[in-house]
Amino acid sequence: MLGGNITVLLLFLINRIFRGAGDPARAMRALWLANLLNLVLDPLLIFGLGPIPALGLEGAAIATTFSRAVGVVYQLRQLGDPGSRVRISWRHARLDVAIPRRLMRVSGVGVFQYLVGTASSLGLIRILAPLGDHVLAGYTVAIRIIVFVLLPA
Fold it and tell me: What pTM was estimated for this model as a whole?
């Protein structure tokens, strides 16, 4: 589960970097890639097909984590692209303690807003979890479809 959490964090963090740099098209392409791959892999791994066994809820988790990891790899390649507005090199890889402190002061309200959204999603999953693996897998697929449709907006 830790790998899934890290991929979610990186996927959305790097997307925010691209958007903040004024390059939302790169952010949207990464989410398209991850969500399209997830739309293909979810049914395959949840229900199985041919030699691929039906994995149920575990298949949904594997598909989602893998799809998001592919999106993160795509984003990391974009960060190294010479045409990108944001380029990361090893000389940028030092920690300046004053910068995170200032960022926390400025972004405190935004972090709280994100936590409210995340908490409500977790609350809904908590309500749906006792209803079974199929309900939870269906909810996950439905949320992916909604996110995919809302991406261009």
Answer: 0.61
